[in-house]
Amino acid sequence: MTALNIVGFPNQSLPLSIMEAIIKGGADKAATAGVTIVGGHSITDSASKYGLAVTGFVEPGKIITKSGAKPGDRLVLTKPLGVGVVTTGIDHKLVREDLVGRVTDIMLTLNRRAAEIMLEVGVSACTDVTGYGLLGHLREIVTASGVGARVEAAGVPVIPETEELVRAGAVPGGTHNNYRYLREAVQWDPALSNEMRLILCDPQTSGGLLMVVPRERKDCLLAALRKDPEVVLAEEIGEIVEEPGVISVTT
């Protein structure tokens, strides 16, 4: 409903017009989401930082938690992976302008319509995919629900240039941290490439939703998501299994 700007900006080395553009961009996207920015706070910093402290409301009966997943439920993802790798590639000057535009469009797309469709169809559990990567956030679901999961790597949508950028060394530190953290929780198919293992652990900025949907509602959910122009994509990437706490990744 409302939000406060939080800004750190190097005003000694960059013109304030850049901060103005950043704040305007945040205000435009907040307005699209139906959020009113009511103020904020800024400080001088050594690097540009921008975020929003958000206040919202939810009806208790409509909360989708991470703890409702059941064996046999299917996993559906609504944005491709690779944003962390691509933005690191941008920092390393390894990325062409067309890819910059494509990844920016992905990050600019709200999860609002995907969430509304999810509520209409009915799902068992959900999380967004952000800093812990796909497998890190999936682990939160299986831990909270007392189940396990199987991910089919071939079905996971990935920004096409991501593997090439991983081979070029454009891997965020957070990706390596996530991979090490998940070492004991994930059973990797030996045939899976090192690049894909890292991508499945890659932190996402403004990533998609990871939905857990009962098998009998999966087709309805996929159809509704795919026909909505405000949803980037919708792909089935695996299923919930009985073995508690274990995530297996197949090729």
From TrEMBL:
GO terms for cellular component: cytoplasm. The keyword Kinase applies. Coiled coil: none annotated. This is Selenophosphate synthase. Residues 2-58 form the PurM-like N-terminal domain. Keywords: ATP-binding, Kinase, Nucleotide-binding, Selenium, Transferase. It comes from the Bacteria. Pfam families: AIRS (PF00586), AIRS_C (PF02769). One of its GO terms (biological process) is selenocysteine biosynthetic process. GO terms for molecular function: ATP binding; selenide, water dikinase activity. The keyword Isomerase does not apply. Residues 70-246 form the PurM-like C-terminal domain.
